[in-house]
Design brief:
alpha+beta; five-stranded mixed sheet; 2 helices
Length: 165
């Protein structure tokens, strides 16, 4: 019997990533179904790859955030529309309205600080390592503008399957 674990022929990591991204879709779908009203103190920080296929954001935002961007869904958002593969939402950035379309595959993080819940995803766009970036400043409620870190005691689920070779 060998001590080495064989490489899986089943892409478990991809299946789990897809399932966890479906959690984000379901949560946003429930918000859409309630008329766009967030219950209680819930609000979301959603981080995504701006250059991922299917991402549609205004050019001035793509220039400012060429790799990754975090948006806040809290007080001022509109026209939330959730599909099977992506969602779109209206937000304002420095008082300028913008419509964003974000495929679930482009999402790298989802945090609801009201209940210390978070999900982090592996980038599904090859060769796109995350780089430091500014906060999106999409006219949030004036709170801290950044998503809580993984070391703040929150319930962040990180999925990272290492392959033994």
């Amino acid at each position: 019997m060998s001590d080495e674990t064989p490489d899986s022929l089943i892409p478990y990591d991809e299946i789990v990533q897809e399932a966890l991204r479906a959690v984000v879709g379901r949560v946003l779908g429930e918000i859409e179904g309630s008329g766009g009203e967030l219950p209680g103190n819930h609000h979301f920080y959603i981080t995504f790859k701006t250059a991922a296929p299917g991402v549609s954001i205004p050019s001035h935002l793509r220039e400012r955030f060429p790799d990754e961007m975090t948006i806040v869904l809290q007080n001022k958002f509109w026209d939330l529309s959730v599909g099977d593969e992506a969602f779109s939402v209206g937000l304002s950035f420095n008082q300028l309205p913008a419509k964003l379309t974000i495929p679930f595959a482009a999402i790298t993080g989802f945090v609801d600080p009201a209940v210390d819940f978070g999900l982090q995803f592996q980038a599904s766009v090859p060769d796109m390592a995350p780089e430091p970036h500014d906060n999106a400043e999409n006219d949030s409620s004036g709170q801290d503008g950044g998503a809580p870190g993984a070391d703040d005691g929150s319930n962040v689920v990180t999925v990272d399957f290492g392959r033994k070779k």
